Amino acid sequence: MIMATEAGFAPYEYTEDGENVVGVDVDIANEIANAMGKELVIHNMTFDGALMAVQQGQADFAAAGISVTPEREEVMDFSIEYATSRQVVVVLKDAGKIASVDDVTEGTLVGVQMGTTADGYCADLGCEVKQYNKYAEAAMELKNDKLDCIVMDSLPAEQLVAANDDLEILDGELFTDKYAIAVQKGNTELLDQINEVLQTLIDEGKIDEYTLNHTISE
Length: 218
Known about the structure:
Elements: E1 2-5, E2 14-15, E3 21-22, H1 24-35, E4 41-44, H2 47-55, E5 61-67, H3 70-73, E6 76-78, E7 83-92, E8 109-113, H4 117-125, E9 128-132, H5 135-143, E10 149-153, H6 154-163, E11 167-169, E12 175-184, H7 188-203, H8 206-213
Parallel strand pairs: 1-4, 1-5, 8-9, 8-10
Antiparallel strand pairs: 2-3, 5-12, 6-12, 7-10, 7-11, 7-12
């Protein structure tokens, strides 16, 4: 069973050694594969590539902190939502350019991961959006004064700030998002099986447990 993902989105998917992909979505994917009696194979690629792999039938499903949007629902099907995310603003400490999430407005130079909902949201705000495949690339640009801020999910943001002590997360959130697993349009049999596993994991509190296991404690 092939899972497409982008392993630069801790704690949902990331690499411990540069090769082995782990994370909340991987734990969920292993449960799905086990329930179906199959071995999980992970294809690590760009976020846009993971979505395209599902659409083209090159992967059974994609799990990469994927938000459900009307545009995406036109070209792929989605599971039930299994995680709620807060989209936050990461800035360089003491830079003074962005003091509040309310300062992210038209003309703000914002770094995002290509193809994410933050990408579209910031573009709709009229921000000057710079797209990256990896948040680490955006962090480097932020440090080099080539960005005003980064907009991203709160949990990966906490991981990013923990690894870069000159960055910080502003109070508050820009918007709230929810994640689901994507499958090829019309693959209702697989979708039903995924939903059954997800509902069990949600009911048993397993997804919260996975999230805690993969989150850096302050």
